[in-house]
Amino acid sequence: MITLYDLVLQDDRRPSPFCWRAKFALTHKGLKWTEVPVGFTEKDKIAFAGSQTVPVIKDGETPVKDSWAIAPHLDKAYPDKPLFKSEMALSYARFVSGWVDTAVQPAMFPIVVADLYGIVRPVDQPYFLESRGKRLGTTDFADFQAKAREKGVASFRAVLEPARRTLREQPFLAGNHPAYPDYALAGAFLWAGIASPLALLEADDPVHAWRERMFDLYDGMGRKAKAA
Ligand SMILES: N[C@@H](CCC(=O)N[C@@H](CS)C(=O)NCC(=O)O)C(=O)O
User: Fold this and answer.
1) Residue 207 burial by Cβ neighbours in a 10 Å radius (0-12, 13-18, 19+)
2) Same domain, 210 and 121
3) Ligand 1 centroid to 53 CA: how many Å?
4) Does this model's pTM top 0.90?
């Protein structure tokens, strides 16, 4: 039995982009799991894995922490329907995940941070205020977000150019079928969409059409998520 420890905000919202990677990976492999919601200040729930962050999975008795470690673990433990069919597939997935971590999500964060804060559970808000306040250099998230949006979402959209070029040529980042690189970028859009009603993409952007395909995937798993 696989248990996924998943970040929870108000009204059972589950926006964590890294947890979405794990959910897509499990679904890709046709694996079932149960979820344990974890609030920002409920680190005790994931202490067994020696982790301060989610996702964490408990696969039988084996704890695995970090979204990137979870994927190869699943391929090793359940070789059917591999996430990574070759060394090159794994390397491409690592590259795209790294790009999402270091360029896409940091470009999204300032334009949705106040909306995100608005749906953090009240009990977790002081923690979020302090930890994210340190990261941004201010705890006035409303002002920070408003200023970030003044520049528009244009600079965010520019960051997506490598994906846009790829998606002009093929339906998914991984080719004709979705795979881990798509899950990594889709996780970022689920995170933003669950937190904020802000329109991030123009309707004629190839990334927009891809995002629709990703939200439809696996019986509309992403679309069913409670959004802002
Ligand atoms: N490198 C980690 C990052 C995980 C991560 O940052 N998770 C966030 C939720 S999206 C978290 O658990 N944050 C807890 C905190 O900020 O205290 C992974 O890929 O799993």
Assistant:
1) buried
2) yes
3) 4
4) yes
